[in-house]
Amino acid sequence: MERLEVRELVYFTAVAEELHFGRAAARLGMAQPPLSRAIQQLERRLGVALLERGSRRVALTEAGAVLLRESRTVLDAASAAARRTRRAGRADPRLVLAIKPGGDGGLLPAILDAYQAEPGALPVELMCSFGEREVLLREGRADAALLHRPHHDLTGLDTQDLLTETQLLVMPSSHRLAGRTRVCLNDLAGEPLPRWPGASEGGAHGPEIHDLGQLLHLIALRRMVAVLPSSIRGQLRDDLVAVPVDDAEPTTLVLAWPEHATSPALAAFVRAAAAVAGKVTGHGG
Amino acid sequence: MERLEVRELVYFTAVAEELHFGRAAARLGMAQPPLSRAIQQLERRLGVALLERGSRRVALTEAGAVLLRESRTVLDAASAAARRTRRAGRADPRLVLAIKPGGDGGLLPAILDAYQAEPGALPVELMCSFGEREVLLREGRADAALLHRPHHDLTGLDTQDLLTETQLLVMPSSHRLAGRTRVCLNDLAGEPLPRWPGASEGGAHGPEIHDLGQLLHLIALRRMVAVLPSSIRGQLRDDLVAVPVDDAEPTTLVLAWPEHATSPALAAFVRAAAAVAGKVTGHGG
DNA sequence: TCTTTCCATACCCGCACGGTATCGCTGCGC
DNA sequence: GCGCAGCGATACCGTGCGGGTATGGAAAGA
Question: Could you tell me which residue ranges the HTH lysR-type domain spans (chains A, B) (predicted)?
Answer without folding.
Answer: 4-61
